[in-house]
Amino acid sequence: DDAERLAAFEARVAADEFIEPKDWMPDAYRKTLVRQISQHAHSEIVGMLPEGNWIGRAPSLRRKAILLAKVQDEAGHGLYLYCAAETLGTSRDEMTAALLAGKAKYSTIFNYPTLTWADIGTIGWLVDGAAIMNQVPLQRTSYGPYARAMVRICKEESFHQRQGYEAVMALCAGTPEQKAMAQDALNRWWWPSLMMFGPPDDASPNTEQSMRWRIKRDTNDALRQKFVDVTVPQAEAIGLTIPDPALRWNEDKDGYDFGQPDWDEFWAVVKGDGPVAADRMAARNKAWDDGAWVRDAAIAHAEKRALKRAA
Ligand code: FAQ
């Protein structure tokens, strides 16, 4: 019966076994996974937009080639993640429809504008840096297909983070105007990057259950702390200042004390009021509509081949 199956499921999770698509799982576990994995997939897809609009304006051929490769990687991440979510019984068409209708959540970070070239380096450094901090532990998430998707994603994110930091480093070694551009980008992206980890633990409705089921392996605040601890020395190394007057090293906890992002702004952006949220949704819908002929052609081609095989 259900109580027995639930006990067996919880014992497997506690023993760090992976749960696989055909295994029995509680409905709430399946629902939480579909929620988190689909939100994650949508983030990768919408996340192509802020950087995609700089491909034509990259300052050199080398930077352009790197950025193009990075944006393509994000598309690939979205596709692995949609596949992982599909193993739980929700179709990619349903997930895509929810995104295009503006009903699906995706990371708040992608509702902020990319104003200068320095923003592109800063996104690689901070946004991909935050993504790695969050996703390395997810390689041990309890659902097998999600954990395995994370392995390749983390390798690619690590290249993204390095290319971003290297681009910011180049600006910091350039003219005073270039260095000021890098500082301005850090000032604008710092707080939204801290928001990527989600609300504080005491305001996070999903953390406790997700930790018990080992869907999440660390809490939002624990990952945010780790991110601050590794990022501050990186900023110092290239002569940039983190825009947080409360930031200071705390010997006792062997980590930094730091200020809190504006959580009212965070919840407003979660609810869809981000500075460029409407533009992002319009761009996604336009891309979907513009791609209709490609989907139609692929289906027509597949049908023609199926007919030939039948003949
Ligand atoms: N944005 O109870 P919690 C990338 C929502 S990396 C929007 O704490 P949970 C790479 C949350 O969904 C970015 N919504 O939730 C890249 C929940 O709403 P719901 C994507 C947020 O799930 C780089 C409510 O608030 N990474 O794309 C956010 O336990 C560069 C309550 O929150 C992932 O998705 C937020 N920041 O913890 C691509 C990683 N935070 O559904 C392109 C996997 C919270 O109950 C360029 N996800 N919410 O109505 C996770 O680890 C978790 O889902 C968290 C949130 C940590 C994001």
UniProtKB/TrEMBL annotation:
Record GO terms (molecular function): phenylacetyl-CoA 1,2-epoxidase activity
InterPro entries in the record: Aromatic_CoA_ox/epox, Ferritin-like, Ferritin-like_SF, PaaA, PaaA_PaaC
Coiled-coil region: none
UniProt entry keywords in alphabetical sequence: Oxidoreductase
Record EC number: 1.14.13.149
Matching Pfam families: PaaA_PaaC
Top-level taxon in the UniProt lineage: Bacteria
Protein name, per record: Ring-1,2-phenylacetyl-CoA epoxidase subunit PaaA
Source organism of this protein record: Sphingomonas jejuensis
Lineage: Bacteria, Pseudomonadati, Pseudomonadota, Alphaproteobacteria, Sphingomonadales
